[in-house]
């Protein structure tokens, strides 16, 4: 870690320009500790519209913890998170979701006993038990949209299958279908392709690329280098809670010090 610290200045100086998209999410001097362990250490990072930013770093670097603070599942100790200029600090996770920030979880958090179709519908009908705006016609429209999303995620024939009965890859794609239904401005994806076989993750890459081309902004936590290289516009590299680099994929991945940390972790 000490060796890395020496090189931080040089790496930060070599940062690529951020691009000219609107800054959707701005993280400023964010800190979070668990007991004596600093898991977010003075992190500042901008996520811009239309950019795919990948968070990489060894296990335990603090990537998921950063997502948890953005989405209101954890409260930072200090620092600021601005969504299009508005502070997210102190807001509950469902309020943040309604502002246009959607996420997936490593453990997927599907409704196991519900069908695939119902899993996606619940994203569109968050108050369906109390009130269904528009009645039958609106519900029919939502169903048509669900089926369109299921077709795009390769789940068309599984609409009536319980989430519990899906294969691992199908569950991952259902998680993607749910986030596609959320109509969010930005997607935070926590290892969405982990454990996928080669053909599934190629399909996943194609899906993600086409959604990004339609205008969705993505921040993705990913360990699979093929995915990282295949999808990233920018890479933010975290280690031990610190943001060590934020730049173009080539610059970050070819940095020998970061590679040592990254591959050291991969082979451990
Ligand atoms: N609720 C918690 N209480 C205590 N420690 C926690 C908690 N959540 C995370 N940690 C610790 O914080 C550190 C960062 O964890 P985090 O899950 O954010 O890392 P990560 O970079 O996402 O790792 P991975 O790539 O393995 O998912 C780890 O040491 C983890 O054990």
TrEMBL record:
Question: ABC transporter domain: from which residue to which, for each copy?
Answer: 25-265
Q: Which InterPro entries match?
A: AAA+_ATPase (IPR003593), ABC_AA/LPS_Transport (IPR051120), ABC_transporter-like_ATP-bd (IPR003439), P-loop_NTPase (IPR027417)
Q: Which domain of life is it from?
A: Bacteria
Any keyword S-adenosyl-L-methionine? no
Q: Please provide the record's keywords in A-Z order.
A: ATP-binding, Cell membrane, Membrane, Nucleotide-binding, Transport
Q: What is this protein called?
A: ABC-type branched-subunit amino acid transport system ATPase component
Q: Which organism is it from?
A: Herbaspirillum frisingense
């Amino acid at each position: 870690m000490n060796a890395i610290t020496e090189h931080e200045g040089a790496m930060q100086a070599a940062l690529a320009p951020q691009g000219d998209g609107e800054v959707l999410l701005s993280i400023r001097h964010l800190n979070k500790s668990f007991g004596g362990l600093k898991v977010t250490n003075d992190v500042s990072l901008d996520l811009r519209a239309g950019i795919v930013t990948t968070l990489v770093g060894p296990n335990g670097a603090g990537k998921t913890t950063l997502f948890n603070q953005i989405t209101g599942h954890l409260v930072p100790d200090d620092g600021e998170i601005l969504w299009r200029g508005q502070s997210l600090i102190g807001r509950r996770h469902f309020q943040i979701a309604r502002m246009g920030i959607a996420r997936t979880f490593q453990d997927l958090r599907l409704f196991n006993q519900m069908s695939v179709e119902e899993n996606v519908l619940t994203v569109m009908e968050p108050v369906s038990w109390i009130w269904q705006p528009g009645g039958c016609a609106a519900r029919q429209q939502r169903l048509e949209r669900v089926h369109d999303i299921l077709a795009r995620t390769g789940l068309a024939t599984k609409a009536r299958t319980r989430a519990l009965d899906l294969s691992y890859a199908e569950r991952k794609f259902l998680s993607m279908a749910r986030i596609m239904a959320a109509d969010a401005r930005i997607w935070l994806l926590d290892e969405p392709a982990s454990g996928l076989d080669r053909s599934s993750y190629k399909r996943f890459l194609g899906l993600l690329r086409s959604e990004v081309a339609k205008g969705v902004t993505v921040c993705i936590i990913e360990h699979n280098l093929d995915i990282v290289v295949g999808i990233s516009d920018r890479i933010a590299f975290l280690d031990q809670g610190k943001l060590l680099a934020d730049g173009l994929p080539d610059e970050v991945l070819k940095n020998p010090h970061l590679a040592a940390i990254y591959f050291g972790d991969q082979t451990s």
